[in-house]
Each structure stands twice: as structure tokens, then as C-alpha cells.
Write a structure and sequence with these properties.
It is a single chain. The protein contains 4 helices and 6 strands. The protein is of the alpha+beta class. The longest helix is centred in the first third of the chain and has 10 residues.
């Protein structure tokens, strides 16, 4: 995780593609629980795992500003030309200069 966050900080104006999980939204959790059917409620572990992990997002852009090795980076999203924050702790993969870096977790949430 540290290596990938360092690479992201040093990307400067180089275009890259980063895949990360977004922050869990309270409103989305409430809506998902309201739509849950009886079969999903019989297996609460899979539903809980779905609700606790944010949505996986892929962003193509370039770095505007980096804030610490395990902080956040302000990234300019190229398709929309808007700014997005990427939390370094939620990065799943980074494609930079044709090389794909994948973060491997040493632990996982057990349900």
C-alpha cells in the first residue's frame, strides 16, 4: 500500500488510472436495507459485507495535489474535468506508465 501511494504522489502530471473504494454513504445504506428482500435477510453476512465496503470506482486522471503518504490526493478526473479526492488507504490498483500495481491486503474482514 505504501509503494502504491508513493507512486501516486510522484505521478505529477502523468495520466493514470486508479481503482479505489468510495466512502460508505449513509443514505445509500438506508436505501439498500429498504430494498432488501427476505432471501437477503436470511443471509445477513453477505448483506453486511456489501454495506460495509464502499462502491468500487475507477478514475482516469492526473494528480493535482498529494497530501502525505497515507493521506489523500486531489485528482483531476479527465472525462468530467472535475476534482476528486482519492484516499490512499482505499486504493485497490493503480495503472501508471503502462504498469499495473495491485495492492495486496494482509488482512481481510471476516464475516
Amino acid at each position: 500500500m505504501t509503494k502504491v501511494s508513493k507512486l501516486l504522489e510522484e505521478a505529477n502530471s502523468t495520466c493514470f488510472t486508479v481503482t479505489f473504494t468510495t466512502k460508505v454513504d449513509d443514505k445509500a445504506v438506508r436505501e439498500r436495507l429498504a430494498k432488501a428482500n427476505a432471501d437477503e435477510l436470511k443471509n445477513p453476512k453477505s448483506l453486511a459485507k456489501e454495506l460495509l465496503v464502499g462502491k468500487e470506482t475507477t478514475l482516469t486522471g492526473h494528480l493535482s495535489k498529494a497530501d502525505g503518504s497515507l493521506g489523500r490526493s486531489l485528482v483531476i478526473d479527465l472525462p468530467s474535468q472535475g476534482f476528486r479526492l482519492v484516499d490512499h488507504r482505499s486504493i485497490i490498483s493503480l495503472i501508471l506508465k503502462g504498469v499495473k500495481y495491485v495492492v495486496k491486503w494482509l488482512f481481510s474482514i471476516i464475516f
